[in-house]
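Structure in, sequence out. Go:
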C-alpha cells in the first residue's frame, strides 16, 4: 500500500513539475507576443512581475525575523522592498508611459539606481553571514529608507543623477561603465557565495548562483542597446525575469515547500549539536564514574601525603615572603653591601633557613670571599670553598658558579659532593643546601647559598623561587651598575653641556658683533646716500638765495617774488626733512613680523639710493607681474635689498659698462614669492660664487668692504623670514634670487 501511495505521489509531483514548466514557457512566449502588439505592455508586465516578487520576499522576511538566524537572508529580504520601489518607479517612468512627461531620462536613471542598490546589498550581506549577534532589522529598514529617498530625490527633485540614455544616440558612458561595475560586483558575489556555500542548502545555493548569473547577463545586455525598444533591451528584460524566478524559487517557493531549508536550518543544526552533546555527556558520565572509583584509591594516598604537602606549602610561603620582602628592599638600596646584608637577613628571618650567605669569586685564586651572611655564620669560619675543579670546588656552590645556574643537594650529610663539609654540617644541623649563581652584566660573579635543616628540603617549586631570587639579586646589581654609569654619564654630559653653552655664548657674542659691524657699514652707506639726496636741494637753496640778492639789487624784490621764493625754499626743506624721516624709518628695527607689500618696500628702498645711482648713470627698473603681500620684517627685507644694490653699484664702478642697468623683478613661482635683482656689471668670478655669503669674505679689498653684508642678508632671509637667498651669474652680470 505504501509503495502504491508513493508511486501516486511521485507521478503527481512529476505532473506538477511538467505543468509548472509548461506554464513558464507559455508566459515567456506570451510576453514575447505582447512585444508584437506593444513593447511597452511587455516591459510593464515583466517589471511588475519583478516588483511583486520583491515585495513578497520582503513581507515573508519581515514576518519571519524571529525565526531567521541567517543575517544574509535578513539583509537581502529587507532590501527587496526598496529595490521593488525603484523598479516600480522605473516602470511608470518608462518611455511611452504618460506619467512623467517633463524629463526623458528618469527610467534609465532609476534602473541604474535599483541595480546599484541591489549589487551593493548583495556584497555587503556576505559580511553578515559570520555575525553571531543578530542584526537590527529596524535600523536596516530606516537606513534603506534614507538611501532610497536620497536616490529618488537626486533623480526627480535635484536632477543631479547622471544621464544614462540619450534618444537617437544610445547609452551614455556613465550608464555603460555603471553596468560593468555592477557586473564586477556580482562576480565578486558569486565568488563569495562559493566560499560561504556551507551556510546554504544545495538547492538554495544553486538557485542563488543561477540568479546572479542571469543578472550579470541581463546587465551586459543593457550595455548594448541604443533604443529603449530594441532587441538588447528585450533580452535584458527576459534574463531579469529569469533572475527573479530563481529568487522566487530560492526564497518564496522553498520557504513554502521546505521552510526548514530557509528559516529553520540553524535550528536543525542546533538540534543536531545538542544530540551530539548529549551523547558526549553520557560518555563523560561513564568516564567520570570510572574516574571516581579510581579517585577513592587516590584519595587514600593523598591523605597520606597531605601532611608532607602542608609542610612544603609552609616552606613555599616562607620563600614567597622572602621574595616579597627582598623586592621591597631592593627599591630602597643604596649600595651593594646593604643589598647583600638585607637579603641574607630576610632569608633567615622570614624564610626559616639555617644559614644564608653570598660569596664573590676572587679573580686570581678562584676562591670565594664571603661578602654577607646571616644565621649560623660560625659554619663559615673553618671551611674553604672555591669555584675550581678540586674537592672544595665540587660542592653545590662551586658547581653553581661554574655552570652559571643552580645546584640542589637534598642530602647534605651523605652526598659525596659535600664530603669536605660533612662534619661541619652535622655540627650545625644542616640537612640540605641550594646554591644559585649571581650575575652582573651577564657575567657570573658569585653565588647565593641557602641551608635547610631537613633532608629533601627543596623541590621543583622551590627551585623556581630560588632562581627568581638569583635573578632579583642580579637585577639589583645591574641596576646599581647602571646607576653608577648614569651618574658618570650625567657628570660628563654636564661638563660637555657647560662647554657647549660657553661656545654658544661666544658664538652669540660674535654674531652680535657681526650685526653691529653690519649696522655701522650700513650707516656709512646711508650717510653717503643722505649726502647725495641733500646735494641737489642744497644747490637749489643756494641759487635761490643768490637770486634774492640779484633781484634786490635790480629793485625787483616784490612781495609776490618773496612769497614765491619762500614756497620754493620750503619745498626743498620739506624734501630734505622727508629724506631724514625715510632714513630714520629704514634703521628702525622691526619688533614683530607683519604683513607688507613687497613692491612698496622695494620702491621705498630704491628711492633712498636713487640720486646716488643717477649720478653714476645707473638705471634701476622694477618689473612685477604680481603684487604679493608677505609676512615678515619689512625693514630687514629693505636692508637686504639695499645691501645687494650697493654691491651692484660697487661692481659698476669696477667694470664701468656703457649703460648700467639693474632690474628688480617680482613674480610668483610654484606658490612662492620670488624677487630677483639682476645687473649687467660683469658678474662674480666663478671660483668665488660659492663663498660670497661667508662672513668676512669680500671681493672689494680690506679697505673697501667688511664682508658681512651678504652674510647678514642671507641670515635675515633664511633664519628670520624662513626663505631662501641664492646667487648665480647670468650672461651680463649677477642675479640674486630671494624666495619667501
Amino acid at each position: 500500500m505504501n509503495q502504491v501511495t508513493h508511486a501516486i505521489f511521485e507521478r503527481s509531483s512529476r505532473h506538477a513539475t511538467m505543468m509548472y514548466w509548461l506554464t513558464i514557457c507559455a508566459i515567456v512566449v506570451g510576453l514575447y507576443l505582447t512585444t508584437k502588439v506593444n513593447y511597452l505592455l511587455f516591459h510593464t508586465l515583466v517589471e511588475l512581475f519583478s516588483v511583486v516578487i520583491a515585495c513578497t520576499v520582503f513581507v515573508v522576511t519581515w514576518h519571519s525575523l524571529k525565526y531567521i538566524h541567517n543575517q544574509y537572508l535578513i539583509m537581502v529580504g529587507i532590501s527587496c522592498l526598496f529595490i521593488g520601489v525603484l523598479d516600480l518607479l522605473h516602470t511608470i517612468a518608462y518611455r511611452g508611459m504618460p506619467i512623467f512627461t517633463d524629463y526623458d531620462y528618469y527610467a534609465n536613471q532609476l534602473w541604474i539606481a535599483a541595480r546599484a542598490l541591489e549589487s551593493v546589498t548583495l556584497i555587503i550581506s556576505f559580511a553578515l553571514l559570520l555575525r553571531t549577534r543578530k542584526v537590527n532589522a529596524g535600523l536596516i529598514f530606516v537606513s534603506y529608507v534614507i538611501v532610497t529617498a536620497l536616490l529618488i530625490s537626486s533623480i526627480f527633485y535635484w536632477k543631479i543623477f547622471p544621464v544614462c540614455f540619450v534618444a537617437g544616440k544610445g547609452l551614455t558612458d556613465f550608464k555603460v561603465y555603471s553596468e560593468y561595475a555592477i557586473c564586477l560586483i556580482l562576480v565578486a558575489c558569486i565568488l563569495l557565495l562559493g566560499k560561504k556555500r556551507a551556510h546554504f542548502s544545495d538547492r538554495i545555493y544553486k538557485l542563488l548562483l543561477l540568479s546572479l548569473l542571469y543578472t550579470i547577463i541581463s546587465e551586459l545586455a543593457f550595455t548594448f542597446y541604443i533604443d529603449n525598444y530594441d532587441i538588447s533591451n528585450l533580452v535584458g528584460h527576459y534574463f531579469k525575469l529569469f533572475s527573479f524566478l530563481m529568487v522566487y524559487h530560492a526564497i518564496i517557493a522553498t520557504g513554502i515547500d521546505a521552510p526548514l531549508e530557509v528559516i529553520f536550518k540553524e535550528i536543525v543544526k542546533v538540534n543536531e549539536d545538542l544530540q551530539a552533546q548529549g551523547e558526549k555527556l553520557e560518555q563523560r558520565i561513564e568516564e567520570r564514574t570510572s574516574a571516581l572509583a579510581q579517585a577513592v584509591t587516590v584519595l587514600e594516598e593523598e591523605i597520606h601525603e597531605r601532611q608532607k604537602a602542608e609542610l612544603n606549602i609552609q616552606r613555599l610561603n616562607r620563600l614567597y615572603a622572602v621574595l616579597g620582602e627582598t623586592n621591597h628592599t631592593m627599591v630602597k638600596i643604596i649600595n651593594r653591601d646593604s643589598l647583600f646584608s638585607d637579603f641574607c637577613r630576610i632569608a633567615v628571618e622570614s624564610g626559616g633557613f639555617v644559614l644564608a650567605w653570598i660569596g664573590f669569586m676572587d679573580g686570581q685564586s678562584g676562591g670565594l670571599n664571603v661578602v654577607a651572611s646571616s644565621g649560623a655564620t660560625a659554619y663559615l669560619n673553618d671551611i674553604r670553598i672555591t669555584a675550581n675543579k678540586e674537592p672544595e670546588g665540587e660542592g653545590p656552590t662551586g658547581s653553581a658558579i661554574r655552570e652559571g645556574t643552580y645546584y640542589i643537594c637534598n642530602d647534605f650529610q651523605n652526598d659525596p659532593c659535600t664530603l669536605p663539609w660533612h662534619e661541619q654540617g652535622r655540627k650545625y644541623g644542616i640537612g640540605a643546601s641550594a646554591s644559585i649563581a649571581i650575575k652582573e652584566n651577564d657575567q657570573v660573579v658569585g653565588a647565593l647559598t641557602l641551608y635547610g635543616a631537613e633532608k629533601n628540603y627543596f623541590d621543583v617549586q622551590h627551585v623556581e623561587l630560588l632562581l627568581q631570587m638569583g635573578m632579583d639579586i642580579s637585577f639589583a646589581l645591574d641596576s646599581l651598575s647602571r646607576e653608577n654609569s648614569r651618574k658618570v654619564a650625567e657628570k660628563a654630559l654636564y661638563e660637555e653641556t657647560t662647554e657647549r653653552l660657553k661656545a654658544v655664548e661666544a658664538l652669540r657674542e660674535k654674531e652680535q658683533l657681526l650685526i653691529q659691524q653690519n649696522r655701522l657699514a650700513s650707516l656709512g652707506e646711508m650717510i653717503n646716500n643722505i649726502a647725495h639726496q641733500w646735494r641737489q636741494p642744497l644747490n637749489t637753496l643756494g641759487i635761490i638765495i643768490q637770486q634774492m640778492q640779484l633781484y634786490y639789487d635790480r629793485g625787483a624784490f616784490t612781495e609776490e617774488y618773496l612769497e614765491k621764493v619762500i614756497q620754493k625754499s620750503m619745498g626743498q626743506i620739506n624734501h630734505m626733512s622727508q629724506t631724514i624721516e625715510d632714513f630714520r624709518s629704514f634703521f628702525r628695527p622691526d619688533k614683530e613680523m607683519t604683513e607688507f607689500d613687497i613692491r612698496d618696500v622695494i620702491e621705498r628702498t630704491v628711492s633712498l639710493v636713487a640720486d646716488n645711482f643717477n649720478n653714476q648713470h645707473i638705471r634701476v627698473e622694477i618689473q612685477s607681474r604680481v603684487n604679493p603681500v608677505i609676512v615678515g620684517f619689512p625693514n630687514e627685507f629693505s636692508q637686504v635689498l639695499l645691501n645687494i644694490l650697493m654691491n651692484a653699484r660697487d661692481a659698476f664702478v669696477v667694470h664701468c659698462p656703457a649703460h648700467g642697468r639693474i632690474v628688480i623683478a617680482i613674480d610668483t613661482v610654484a606658490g612662492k614669492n620670488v624677487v630677483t635683482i639682476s645687473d649687467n656689471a660683469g658678474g662674480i668670478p666663478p671660483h668665488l660664487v660659492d663663498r660670497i655669503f661667508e662672513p668676512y669674505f669680500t671681493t672689494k679689498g680690506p679697505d673697501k668692504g667688511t664682508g658681512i653684508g651678504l652674510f647678514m642678508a642671507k641670515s635675515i632671509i633664511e633664519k628670520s623670514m624662513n626663505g631662501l637667498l641664492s646667487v648665480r651669474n647670468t650672461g651680463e652680470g649677477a642675479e640674486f634670487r630671494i624666495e619667501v
